[in-house]
Amino acid sequence: MRRATSPFRFANVEKNDSLFYKTPPNPDTDRFPMPDDTPAPSHGFRWNRVLLKVSGEVLMGDAAYGIDMKTVAVVAQAVAEVAREGVEICLVIGGGNIFRGLSKAAGDMDRASADYMGMLATIMNALAMQSALEKIGVDTRVQSAIPMAAIAEPYIRRRAQRHLEKGRVVIFAAGVGAPFFTTDSGAALRAAEMQCDALLKGTSVDGVYTADPKKDASATRYDTLTYQDVLAKDLRVMDASAISMMRDTGIPIVVFSIREEGSLRRVLNGEGVYTVIENPSAKA
Ligand code: UDP
Questions:
Q1: Range of the domain at 155
Q2: Is residue 4 scored above 70 in pLDDT?
Q3: Which atom of ligand 1 is nearest to the CA of 53?
């Protein structure tokens, strides 16, 4: 006997968004874009979509190496709080807590292979963060710049945008997917592609200083800088390719300490301690 077809068959298929995605209108390519009927965000934060870059070092906690899951859980909690209130969050996590291409541990390996090892480290961190976020009920997807079908989605720009619109946190792993780059460049690239309102760099220091505050007690913190200042003064905030990409797209960079409790929320509210890097016209 033939099985009766469920009247809900198609409805069910439509609901299964892991199979099918409705393509959102793209004002760059659609000849007749629909008027923007996206409701204004109801949260009171100053940005609607941000990319949070967390260096691998932060995830070590007080250890000298590796992943401290307690610290990962603290960062995940901070992300969850603002994501639940409607801020769309992209995450890029470094890999320096496990492996860096340019490090003593790499010995005399060729640079490209060592960098690929660094990219694999970012995938481990991304999975740790995904697990911590999902444990507290935050829908999360990992997209890897190096296809790794068994453990993460491949990076697909439109699909990532759809995840964000659905309120999922998207973790972009493996940087830009090429050696001779860093996850800072990966963060800048994804922030531009996802049309983020800001790139938040969560580090262990509460902003950009005139010198390394851990080594020089007279170092002072900048409140604001221009991209050009950072490049001209060679302030090692992010690598030059990341800074120039943000300069060209006009996306502000906010450097703050993610180790301080509640700091992510404060930054999103325009409060607390941080350095903003932006164009001179935005500063005026
Ligand atoms: N890496 C790379 N290409 C990328 C991103 C990362 O080659 O697009 C490698 C590089 O060796 C880098 C390592 O991965 O040193 C870890 O990333 P990063 O140093 O940016 O981590 P973080 O300092 O943020 O912890």
A1: 43-283
A2: no
A3: 24
Q: Which amino acid is at 197?
A: D
- The answer, yes or no, to whether any atom of ligand 1 lies below 6 A from the CB of 182, is yes
CATH number at residue 140: 3.40.1160.10
Residue 45 alpha carbon to ligand 1 centre in Å: 30
266 vs 9, more confident:
266
**Residue whose token pair is 């995940």:** 76
- The protein residue with its alpha carbon nearest to ligand 1, atom 22, reads 94
Between the CA of 97 and the centroid of ligand 1 the distance, in Å, is 10
Is residue 130 assigned to a domain? Answer: yes
Long-range Cβ pairs for the range 62-71 (8 Å, 24+): 65/97, 65/98, 66/97, 66/98, 67/97, 67/98, 67/124, 67/125, 67/128, 69/128, 69/132
Residues 6+ apart with CB under 8 A from 260: 206, 272, 273
Max intra-chain CA distance, the chain: 84
**What is the mean predicted confidence (pLDDT) over 158-165?**
98
For residue 36, being part of any structural domain is answered with no
Total residues belonging to the chain: 284
Atom of ligand 1 nearest to the CA of 55: 24
Is residue 1 predicted with pLDDT exceeding 90? no
* pTM of the model as a whole: 0.86
Torsion angle defined by CA atoms of residues 213, 216, 218 and 221, in that order, rounded to the nearest 10 degrees: -20
Protein residue with its CA nearest to atom 13 in ligand 1: 118
pLDDT value for 38: 56
Please write the tens of the pLDDT for every residue from 29-46: 444 444 455 556 678 899
Q: Which residues pair with 91 in a beta bridge?
A: 52, 171
Q: 3-state DSSP call for residue 90?
A: strand
